[in-house]
Design goal:
- The chain has four helices and four strands; from the N terminus they run H-E-H-E-E-H-E-H.
- A four-stranded antiparallel beta sheet has the order 2-3-1-4.
- A hairpin with a 5-residue loop joins strand 2 and strand 3.
Amino acid sequence: MHAPTQPRSIATLLQTSLVLGGVAALAFWPPREGAMMLVALDGRDAARLVAPALDAGAALAGRGPLSNMIVVRGVRSRLTPLARHGVILIAAPSGLCGAETAA
């Protein structure tokens, strides 16, 4: 008689999900310094992110792929405090952002 394969399948699916989640987290982890995307978690227009980003020493680099995102160049440690205001930082891979346009 064969043992049930259900638990093994679930364990494999769970491990695969964890690996893929880790790869995604690494891919979007913001660099220490350079291009990053600011994302307003409330979905509101990214124009409200411009002043706080500039106050944190960042330079505007373009628009993100959605209306609640902007691309900036700056230092992660200076931009991280924006999280208290519902903003997250992610890496700005060129494949996701496409051609940068003036903000």
